[in-house]
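Input record (one chain):
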Amino acid sequence: MPFFKNASLPFVFCGINWDSTEYGLPCENVTGQNTSDMILVGNAASIDGWEADTARALIGQSTTTVPTGNGDAWMAPFALITFATKPEEQGTWAANTASDRRHGSAGAG
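The corresponding structure, as predicted from the sequence alone:
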């Protein structure tokens, strides 16, 4: 990254974990999506004896300092944040942002 920082060539990234400052960002020619550390709640379908009411009760009694997240809409009641999206959406965003940058727009970044 140091060789391309503030260069004339634009860059679009997807999924830098946690904090992009370790890569020398932000800078004028780079935009993208950061991710952050969190506990990911998986799909409960593989848990024998899964009971939604029991899970809700346990969550109600718990305190956490790390946010929880998941990618399934039906698991939303069991996590702080739900990213129920299609993988294609991230690719579409990256392509559109790269195209915007190519044509002189700042993009969605």
